[in-house]
Design a protein that fits this description.
Radius of gyration: 18 Å
Largest sheet: 7 strands, parallel
CATH class: Alpha Beta
Shape: globular
CATH architecture: 3-Layer(aba) Sandwich
Structural class: alpha/beta
Helix content: 40-55%
Number of domains: 1
Number of strands: 9
Length: about 270
């Protein structure tokens, strides 16, 4: 029997690239996202690879625990077992911390952290019963390096890092592998759902344009780079993978924490005083 993988946020970007890679490696897929059209496009592309079974596609908003429970139930009914869970759904956010409403905070943390907790909570009993399984959590360099003007995003990603590391300690003796993936900014569909806030509309728009300009840099990693890191983590049972330039970012922060904090403030403050 082929191994199976469940991927959230699989309709584009990192999730799509990961689905295609795992399919090429012989995995059966359960792909989930909020929009049916994108999921179907990924499913068709998987099948066009030749020899790949049609993925199970499930429309799911990971912020809703009922929908996540239904997702896991459908996956287990369809395949009978799941070998790998890849938590990928997420939202980026940038702006002065006081400009984020409580609604913004909930949207970001409910997706980036609670979404992961929901899938883990729903699937963990299956992994424990089997005595095996792999959980991959997409964190970020922002879950390792505190960055000015990314406070809600950093909060969510530091939460993911803590969740991942604590799960590793508890679940490793029970046969369950847990891994954290830490990319830098990735040239993907991040902008579609990103939350930008500012002192005014112009400030918020300039933050959006700032990120768009970063993506024009040819050195910015692509979704395929992250997919390869995920495959490396699963295949070689690594507890953590820093993707590309995230290695340098972490090294610089460890050596010069005060300088890196100052640089982030200057680079991202825009119209803030």
């Amino acid at each position: 029997m082929a191994p199976t993988v469940l991927i959230t946020g699989a309709s584009e970007g990192i999730g799509k690239a990961t689905a295609l890679l795992f399919s090429r490696q012989g995995y059966d897929l359960v792909i989930a996202a909020r929009h049916a059209e994108g999921l179907e496009a990924v499913a068709q592309e998987v099948q066009s690879l030749g020899g790949a079974a049609a993925p199970l596609t499930v429309i799911c908003d990971v912020t809703d625990p009922f929908q996540v429970h239904t997702l896991v139930q459908k996956a287990l009914e369809h395949y009978g077992y799941i070998d790998v869970l890849i938590n990928n759904a997420g939202i980026f956010a940038s702006g002065p911390v006081e400009q984020f409403s409580l609604s913004d905070w909930h949207q970001i943390i409910d997706t980036n952290l609670w979404g992961y907790i929901h899938t883990i909570n729903a699937l963990l009993p299956h992994f424990l019963q089997r005595g095996s399984g792999t959980i991959v959590n997409l964190s970020s360099i922002a879950g390792k390096v505190p960055t000015a003007y990314l406070v809600p995003y950093c909060t969510s990603k530091f939460g993911v890092t803590g969740l991942t590391e604590a799960l590793q300690v508890e679940l490793q003796p029970k046969g369950i592998h847990v891994c954290g993936i830490h990319p830098n900014l990735i040239k993907s569909s991040l902008m579609k759902l990103a939350v930008f806030r500012g002192k005014d509309e112009q400030d918020a728009q300039s933050r959006r344009e700032q990120l768009e300009n970063v993506f024009k840099n040819p050195l910015v990693e692509k979704p395929e780079n992250v997919a390869n890191a995920i495959w490396d983590a699963v295949k070689n049972k690594k507890p953590e993978v820093m993707v590309g330039s995230a290695n340098l970012s972490q090294a610089l922060y460890r050596l010069f924490p005060g300088l890196i904090k100052w640089v982030s403030r200057q680079a991202l403050k825009n119209q803030d005083n």
